[in-house]
Amino acid sequence: MSRHVSPVNDDNVKDVAASTDVVAYMTSLGQAARAAGAVMRGQSTAGKNAALLAMARHLEAARPGLIEANARDLTRGRETGLDAALLDRLALDDQRIDAMIEGLHQVAALPDPVGEIDGLRSRPSGIQVGQMRVPLGVIGIIYESRPNVTVEAASLCLKAGNACILRGGSEARDSNAAIAACIEAGLREAGLPAAAVQVVAITDRAAVGHLISMPEYVDVIIPRGGKSLIERVSREARVPVIKHLDGVCHVYVDATADLDKAFDIAINAKTHRYGTCNTMETLLVDAPVAGALLPRLASGYAEHGVELRGCARTREILGAIAAASEDDWATEYLAPVLAIRVVDGVEEAMAHIDRYGSHHTDAIVTENYALARRFLAEVDSSSVMVNASTRFADGFEYGLGAEIGISTDKLHARGPVGLEGLTTRKYVVLGDGHVRG
Amino acid sequence: MSRHVSPVNDDNVKDVAASTDVVAYMTSLGQAARAAGAVMRGQSTAGKNAALLAMARHLEAARPGLIEANARDLTRGRETGLDAALLDRLALDDQRIDAMIEGLHQVAALPDPVGEIDGLRSRPSGIQVGQMRVPLGVIGIIYESRPNVTVEAASLCLKAGNACILRGGSEARDSNAAIAACIEAGLREAGLPAAAVQVVAITDRAAVGHLISMPEYVDVIIPRGGKSLIERVSREARVPVIKHLDGVCHVYVDATADLDKAFDIAINAKTHRYGTCNTMETLLVDAPVAGALLPRLASGYAEHGVELRGCARTREILGAIAAASEDDWATEYLAPVLAIRVVDGVEEAMAHIDRYGSHHTDAIVTENYALARRFLAEVDSSSVMVNASTRFADGFEYGLGAEIGISTDKLHARGPVGLEGLTTRKYVVLGDGHVRG
Known about the structure:
The structure is a homodimer.
Chain A: H1 10-19, H2 22-41, H3 45-61, H4 63-79, H5 84-90, H6 94-109, E1 117-122, E2 128-135, E3 138-143, H7 148-159, E4 163-167, H8 173-189, E5 197-199, H9 206-211, E6 220-224, H10 227-236, E7 249-253, H11 259-271, E8 280-286, H12 287-303, E9 307-310, H13 312-318, E10 322-323, H14 326-329, E11 337-343, H15 345-356, E12 361-365, H16 369-378, E13 383-388, E14 405-407, E15 415-417, E16 423-434
Parallel strand pairs in A: 3-4, 3-6, 4-5, 7-8, 7-12, 8-11, 9-10, 9-11, 12-13
Antiparallel strand pairs in A: 1-2, 2-16, 14-15
Helix pairs in contact in A: 3-6, 3-8, 4-8, 6-7, 7-8, 11-12
């Protein structure tokens, strides 16, 4: 598979798209990935790490070419009217190339999850049974404008022993092609199959539709991007999807809370960053402490310019803030806006979270042991916290060493997904001529 | 939800089917299950066990009624021309009722997987992070004629803290309704929501289509039955499916094998039972030992009446056996038939398994340490074995204590699925006022 190695300019991308039968092209990627996946299963940790470090060297050597390819993407982006935020995500500079190179070194330094055997136990029949962690096989990743995702996704899939097919945003196609060439050079240098990482070289939107409909070649799809992309992929995929939808996260401050901790957590969970999925969007306050806590918090939020929208009881305490509507309770603002509701106890708080939340990350602030245990056990979210900011819901903060995404699904991987989420476990049985009686 | 409690006879089932809007009915089951699932999440082990034991008592008390309901199903089955094998699977007698009751006691005695926290570790930020095992939520199970599956599926879902919606075969509807009444009585007696176990009371085939299309109410579907059912469910489901397709299992006898062990394993893997998914369907023999092993095995198989079909080299050694076709290599016979191929070493054996196998269970017989390690690491099947019969691939043999099925999927659960496969893990974070810096 060398379709992605030649530097791609505007014109020859159009040629590829025009001249290629999309189904045949995607099928060829799928077949090559399946074959490469079988070879990747048997690779040593040292071999995989050698490829990662070789990729880092090739990125370093290709620095001027990367910047040049990226400049073509940026020029085209400006011409086609991409907004400033999108252009910023698309841009590669020396600092971002440094970060990609550093990322490859970090992934190389991570422990290899493949081959680990859990719970090997002897059974009455005489056999020993355990579960071995092994690669998933072929992973399809669909993402948008940031070209550094190409390196990040490739490195994590490779370290976990998988082949991958990467489909980046068409606005980043020249950057992605240039990065893909470095990745391929690294794979070849380390003696790994070049098709272990394939970047879809055609910009035809139908390519995504095919990628998510080839269960014979692709074991799982990870879409990374906006809600509409993820919803489309989830709806249409015939391959299992590890998806990340909304983060409508809550902090519930119980009547027994230490109000200093509650203040710090409520401020941090909202204001540390506004655009992240683990940012608090609704604050729930137990009625007995609402009068003491809310005015203090309102001043804190005012300093950060956070707009508050409250329930009737909140507005009785805080006065002139907007009323929260039904929609507010279910909204992921991703902005300096916070909905606040006064509730009567943990039951009402948990019912609110269950009804309006997105089962992403929810926290309780309490000094009551029994309530903490209950909240942990019963709140059905991918991360549930006691006396900590929701902003901690993150692969690096959790010690996964890497993060390919945060799953809001329940099956296979839930919450931050690291290398382990890119693997599966099979049973291994060790005997010495044992037969079943 | 009391739709399933009244004893159902042929006529009033038709009435329900005719008078009910299937979508509205299935939606009502889904909503009730979702609500019951939320209650189930908070149940203690003792409460769940009390319900299981109460169900056992109600089955015991309802014995005459169960036999009577089953007799109606059998009569109808004979009238509609069900074959003898199907009628046998459908039949309930005292022994089978004993087994259902005993099964409930066994599930009550199993350790509760819910609430277990793995890997709780302190992070540099000061928080502690671990993963807590929690129920999946709502499980839909679609099965065929055996009415005892109703008890088995209900008990495992309940023990793992889930609500479930069970859709049995229409040929078993009276038996299933009678069993459902006992289950509901047990739930009520233990103070659990009756909707924690709901048996679909309409026989309309469209019910299945709706059950697998309600991701808002159902978290996972487990189809148990023939290949066509499973393929249909997998193709049409909008809810994740834990599925079990073919078992085209292999034993590869390496040149270094102890031929006595190889003989025992090859005979056991084929002849212990013919109709099971972990039965060997193809034997691969390394060329240097084919001449010594195959004639001895052929006599052994002849004693069991197993028909052999071989590759050209096998036929050179064994003489008058049928030639194996391309189709034979990919066939799950579920019968006393075995395909045999002579190969040149482990590479060719693994390539054959990868190409023709179903990634269910494959074994190597060898005394070579390096080959054993390699086969374990590289064969991409849900169970991989060294010097043991493929027949061991089974939840009870593996010590899971129970088995809801064997998954041939890679995500979430792979291989025999016990209680753990009916749960998921969420992250729990314990802090003391910690915020992200």
